[in-house]
Amino acid sequence: MPVNLTAPDPASLAPVAGVELGWAEAGIRKANRKDVLVMRIAPGASVAGVFTKNRFCAAPVQVCRAHLNVGRGVRALVVNTGNANAGTGEAGLADAHRTCVETARLLGCDSTQVLPFSTGVIMEPLPVERLIAGLPQAIGRLAPDHWYQAAESIMTTDTVPKAASRRIDLGGHAVTITGIAKGAGMIRPNMATMLGFIATDAGIDPALLPRLTRLAAEQSFNRITVDGDTSTNDSFVVIATGRSSAQRIESINDPRLARLTEAVAAVARELAQAIVRDGEGATKFIEIAVEGAATEDEATRVAYSIAHSPLVKTAFFASDPNLGRILAAVGNAGIDDLDPGRVQLYLNDVWVAQDGGRHPAYREEDGRRVMQAAEILVRVVLGRGEARATVWTCDLSHEYVSINADYRS
After folding, report:
1. Are 312 and 404 within 8 A, CB to CB?
2. pLDDT tens sequence across 299-355
3. pLDDT grade, residue 391 (50/70/90)?
4. Residues 275 and 184 sit within 8 Å (Cβ to Cβ)
5. Strand order in the sheet with 375-381
6. How would you classify the pairing of strands 344-347 and 387-394?
7. Active site residues
């Protein structure tokens, strides 16, 4: 069961003017489940994306990058689940291109104006004929209020759909931001098997949107990990349709840009944390906050060193306060001049380690009490400066092994 996470209320997901969504049950991997999503985007929208840095990146990622570089304006996204179309060579690229061609034919646009996305099993041929056969059904269902069904249609090992919505005031005008994401395992985005799509009716110059997208990713999807594995298919896309009454943001100096960036990042953080809460086999949601670092990069390295440690993650699963494992992970983060004598460690309200050693007042029963909770804060103070960073992760359970051992069966 996910950790303090339930499916969103469909009524809470606000439509975004200029975006329509439709789905199909195409039988990509399993029958009778939503597995194809089409998002139609109105002309004039700005679209930007950040993608996995895995060198074995999937064919759709390669095609997305190429089509965004063409710069003709994106008119549609098409997503399939059940098959990642990764590790499929030239045939996989041909299938991704064909998906774009067929989608463009049905929507009346150019194939370079379509971005394809896939998620699922790696190194198996994409059943492209099934995908193409499902496109008319998906397009026939296009409507602006189908965000919940869209979130369902991109799930793989997710146990609940992930979607979020916000309305903000932008310079005296109402602006809507709505997004969906999928992911539960093979999660350590490095971008920018997770996918995230956020749309807003705010208008923004196409040259500014990539910066907003990168900043939002850095504050959300690039701060989560379930198992430390970066997928071949990680993609995060932001769509700005410009259909609200707010004047378009044209300059980096426009104060509304920071406001919009933070709002998009807030939706992205909610989606990113939902991925961790729904991590495969997760029973604990863990926030790791590192403070007093010399640089933000240093703080992030320490946080991820803790979050990626199987010894730490399994201790949290067992509620076993074997907390020297956390100090060992801090020391293994690659900070050569770290002074252990200045490091402090806290679990929620419990001061565990003082100046690099066990706090005199710490009792193991206090550590166990904290670790039995479903949500836990690990706070590390390095005593080196003012920089800080936060990473969200989960524990590592028997169920994680079972899910991934049986994934293809």
Report:
1. no
2. 999 999 999 999 999 999 999 999 999 999 999 999 999 999 999 999 999 999 999
3. very high
4. yes
5. 357-358, 350-354, 344-347, 375-381, 285-293, 387-394
6. unpaired
7. 193
